[in-house]
Write a structure and sequence with these properties.
Two copies of one chain form a homodimer. By secondary structure, the first copy, chain A, is α+β, with helices and mostly antiparallel strands. Chain A contains eleven helices and eleven strands. Chain A folds into two domains: 6-160, PurM-like, N-terminal domain (60s Ribosomal Protein L30, Chain: A), CATH 3.30.1330; 175-327, Phosphoribosyl-aminoimidazole Synthetase, Chain A, domain 2. The radius of gyration of chain A is 21 Å and the shape is globular.
């Protein structure tokens, strides 16, 4: 974490000494306006709107994700990490599209008893990740709520015209690949909830970090432009997101359970393979590419520093079947109760 | 309200007959995908992202506003009107910038017990306003919450390059104008809450509609490009929003309380003039312009069909005083407890 900038520090102090709430505008000026990093078209968050200028020859890509305390993160998670998860799940969507990040707008519905210290730490979390991922704040809205902390972030990125990687581009005959390891998010959530499992301290820390601060694969996503036929990030669950690609593409992704890469830490939590595969919150990239291009995967993995594994193939659509299925080692379809996280 | 499209109808029926929840994806496909109006760059809401193409020579303007049940609307307000208020408060921001609407993305945090009928009516409200104001959905996220219904909408618009009307452009010597009538939002909220006041049925209906379905002044905003030096819409309260213009411009807006236009209905609720002036939720346009241009106001009012009134002047900034003040008929500053709605 960065040290708080001096202005935020003194504002916090004033708030504490006075023992009273600070106005929405003071909070925006002290904690959020610095996150615009001087972008003149963000007008220091003092206007009703901002202007976005994608570079000439680039498409402007927009994505939005919301998070609710108790659903997407735990209310007592560190505020820096809540901020970073919010930013990163959106960056992960940009990564899946092959986009480079530009800027974002933010809506925060804050419980009335949230402390200034909490808000300051939340802004510090954003600030650290902004520098790391090359994105900055250009607008937002802060409102009060009597319910749980609720956040929404709309992120903007750019791709060379016409080169955004779609969900709907998978073709029969493609191979299906996934980055990194699957199941760490689900395993990390189990640990964050304090559910019993036998795992050493290093494994616990690894999984907690994977759950709280997923790593958006921006470099990999950009490298996949022109190579991947379809791509999505794994948020709802590997099988569910594969089905989304299948449905959008009019094909069926056939995944082999045994080939899905799981970390040793995730396996040691006692969750079974199918639970890890369908758990969600992984933020790995799931993509399809021509079988002839599959030879380039090892070079791509070395270039981007991200492990890449072939986990299945793309079949033609079969009637009303779902867009994806999971096979066991005998090649039979595994019956899965829930393909991924269900919001409703 | 429009009749529901057939697909939504049958989906609703299926949901009721099955007596079980529908998946997030089915809800999106049935109720929200039609709101993209076939924009190919919205990918029928089946992708992780959409693409926005402002026209050549236009600046892309972005604004965001959140709303929480119990704070910005009442939980039992009609769902169509909640949807329309959400869209309209954002359209009002675009209006204040002189922008024409393009598209929007939406985040909905829905209580788990929200009915399919509620969601269908919410989508119908959006659909009707989309047609009316020339805007369409391009993306979104739906999540579940254990708290109150929480909504966030990011709206996109466009202005000819460099012509967005700023908050920070007011100059000493300008006159201050406001559209329509002020205080109807505050008076309408009072009625919506069931607080006693002597007013006839027509007055009640008028004020309730003004509170629940504010009218964004898009035509007026576009007509003010090149005329208004500064503009904001009145959401927090006339005096508070005047102060925001004053602060952003480094000037002081001096408003005369007696000149602020109030509707007869609002006055008949028994709320005093200052309470109406500082109540907020008006979504009228507050702007400043050169005193020499003030002669054009009547023509502009006729052209746009919106009443326009001069309510004050712009003075140079005076030390640490706030960016706006309200004078009584003797020219003395009225002491105001709260300049506008305080979120915290």
């Amino acid at each position: 974490m960065m040290p708080p900038h001096e202005k935020a520090k003194s504002a916090l102090k004033a708030g504490q000494i006075a023992g009273r709430r600070r106005s929405e505008f003071a909070i925006i000026e002290d904690y959020f306006a610095p996150l615009t990093q001087g972008d003149p078209l963000a007008y220091a968050l003092k206007d009703d709107a901002a202007i976005i200028h994608p570079m000439p020859g680039m498409d402007l890509v927009v994505t939005v994700d919301g998070m609710v305390a108790g659903v997407h993160f735990l209310p007592d998670d560190p505020p820096e990490e809540i901020a970073q998860k919010l930013l990163r799940v959106n960056l992960s969507d940009l990564a899946a599209k092959g986009a480079e990040p530009l800027s974002y707008v933010l809506t925060c519905a804050w419980p009335r008893d949230l402390s200034l210290e909490w808000i300051e730490r939340f802004a510090q979390g954003l600030s650290a990740d902004q520098k790391r991922f090359g994105i900055h704040l250009i607008g937002g809205d802060t409102v009060a709520t009597d319910g749980p902390l609720t956040l929404s972030l709309t992120a903007f990125g750019q791709t060379p015209e016409g080169s955004m990687i779609r969900r709907g581009g998978a073709r029969p005959g493609d191979v299906v690949c996934v980055s990194g390891a699957i199941g760490d998010g689900a395993a990390g959530l189990r640990i964050a909830r304090g559910e019993a499992c036998e795992i050493d301290a290093a494994g616990r820390d690894y999984l907690l970090q994977r759950y709280r601060r997923p790593e958006p694969h921006l470099g990999l996503g950009q490298a996949l432009r022109g190579i991947a036929h379809a791509c999505a990030d794994v948020s709802d669950g590997l099988l569910a997101d594969a089905a989304h690609i299948g449905q959008a593409s009019g094909v069926r992704l056939v995944l082999q359970a045994a080939k899905v890469p799981l970390s040793a830490s995730a396996q040691s939590t006692g969750l079974d393979r199918v639970a890890l595969i369908t758990g969600g919150d992984d933020y790995e990239l799931l993509f399809t590419l021509d079988v002839k291009a599959a030879g380039a995967l090892s070079a791509l993995s070395i270039e981007t520093g991200v492990a890449l594994n072939v986990i299945g193939r793309v079949d033609p659509r079969q009637g009303t079947k779902s867009g994806a299925c999971l096979l066991n080692e005998q090649g039979r379809e595994i019956e899965v109760a829930e393909m991924g996280y269900q919001h409703f």
